[in-house]
Amino acid sequence: MNLRSFTTAASTMALVISSTAFAAEDYAARFGIENDVPGMCSYASIDAKDYSGQTLNIITHAVPVMGEPTALHAKQFEELTGATVNVVHVPFGDLFQRIMIPFQTGQNAYDVLFYGSLWIGDLNPYLAPVPEKYRNSAGMQDVTRNYIDVATWDDQMIQYPVDGDRHYLKYRTDIFDNPDMQARFKSETGRDLSVPATWEEYNEVARVFSGWDWSGDGNLNYGSAEVAKRDDLMFSAFISRAAAYAKHPDVKGGFFFDLETMEPQINNPGFVRGLELFVEASKDWAPGGANFGLGDEIFAFGGGQALMSYSWDDAFIQAQQEDSPIRNQVAAAPLPGASEVWNRDTGQWDSFDEPSRAPYITWGWTSAVSERSNNKEMAFDYLCFFSNEANTESDLQIGRFGVNPYRESHFDPAFWTDKLGWDADLAKSYVETLSGMDTSQNRVFDLRVPGVSQFMTSMATGVASAIAGQATPQEALDGVAAEWKQIVERIGVDTVREAYARVVALEDNQ
């Protein structure tokens, strides 16, 4: 190449680089992101698409959790591509039926669906496989094993990962580390105050710290905030508690059912022990605590009223908002475990020197494209854009959005310390707790079978009856087990077993 040609080429390249940098800065200014990350899902790549005159119909959860980011990124997608994007928001209790009924009646109602990932057992026949080019994108390659598994059915990815959910313990470090609080706890219990390693310890800490003003703000505080409202995800709170006693690390072949016989395990001694402790805990909840839904739990812990909670990320992220009164005064830890775990193979309790723990990979938000959509490429482009690195980085920082870590890069402590201003020890506890669940050999996943909503509704009704004192824990769960047998018979034993085998494979790390 002669000097003139080299100079011209260099000048052209400089203009391209300058233009790209300007465009990236422009996207950041227009859309409130930190930086546009290059790739097939980036703002620049989606901006190059032209979907003018085309319409995309989306169904999602009510605002704010998942519904708010859906609408936000739909508006951005419209501006970038020229498409018309219609977003329908539906309360959680109605969302499953609003998605399923159009499928069952042959309608093409929605192109894109946002919903609870545990519904894959019912929805899988109606979902379009994720095309290879999206599976090979940088963002998708970064998704952790757990959430690739959650998105997969029959070795085919049919859900598009947009979230990673699990239950873990959240607690106030300023109270646990306070010498006066430590002295009061020891005076009342005879033991040192420590982060609960078992659910018995959790209940004891909650009892000591309930009903008095330990925060010094003139208001009563409580030891625990739990999702206890029957129709608002209480079934997940119960699973978190029961898993420690009913998920034996050496027993394979099913947690909710014995896979071979399809006999429900929901009323075995492990589940009963979990419910007994749930009922015991309810005596120390805040007034109205038996009707706490997820939103109540988020703001009770995230707002500083409760010492501990143990559901999804949202309460923790709420506590870490910049205007939070308890920012950088919280930490994460694995769910409490159990010193005794029921062994259904031997029909006895096994003791553990170190508490056995069973991480719960609870249902999370997911997304998919309808097989009946006439706009599949645009639909997958929207999901690709929704979950691009820039959008996800922004969404992770907003507690009410319901977008939680699901990529390997989300477990870099530097992201949380450098970009969000979290204390180093706090970020370390968060990252190690969440990433440790992904590598556990004793995990519990959601049921993920046809009719899952019927099973969970039955469970929640039984648990609620025990908490209300209408039945003993054993009586309540015996009733649930009888209903589960009827549900299995209605759907078909082989149908449920075939689906449940996929869950067991995840739990048994096959």
The counted number of beta strands is 17
Largest sheet: 5 strands, mixed
Helix count from the secondary structure assignment: 22
> Roughly what is the average pLDDT, rounded to an integer?
93
Please describe the structure with a list of short key phrases separated by commas or semicolons:
D-Maltodextrin-Binding Protein, domain 2; 14% strand; 5-stranded mixed sheet; 46% helix; 4-stranded mixed sheet
Q: Could you explain the architecture of this structure?
A:
There is one protein chain. The chain has 510 residues and is an alpha/beta fold. The protein has 2 domains: 13-161 and 364-404, D-Maltodextrin-Binding Protein, domain 2; 169-336 and 441-507, Periplasmic binding protein-like II (D-Maltodextrin-Binding Protein, domain 2, 3-Layer(aba) Sandwich). The chain has 22 helices and 17 strands. The protein has helices at 3-31, 43-47, 67-81, 92-104, 120-123, 132-135, 138-141, 145-150, 173-176, 179-189, 199-208, 234-246, 269-282, 294-302, 314-319, 376-386, 389-395, 413-419, 424-438, 452-467, 473-491, 493-507, and strands spanning 55-61, 84-90, 112-116, 152-153, 156-157, 160-161, 169-172, 222-225, 257-258, 263-264, 306-309, 330-333, 338-343, 348-356, 360-361, 365-369, 444-445. The strands form 6 sheets. A 5-stranded mixed sheet has the order 2-1-3-16-6. The protein has a 4-stranded mixed sheet with strand order 8-11-7-12, sandwiched between helices. A two-stranded antiparallel sheet has the order 4-5. The radius of gyration is 24 Å and the shape is globular. It starts with a helix and ends with a helix. 50% of the residues are buried. Residues 1-22 have low confidence and may be disordered.
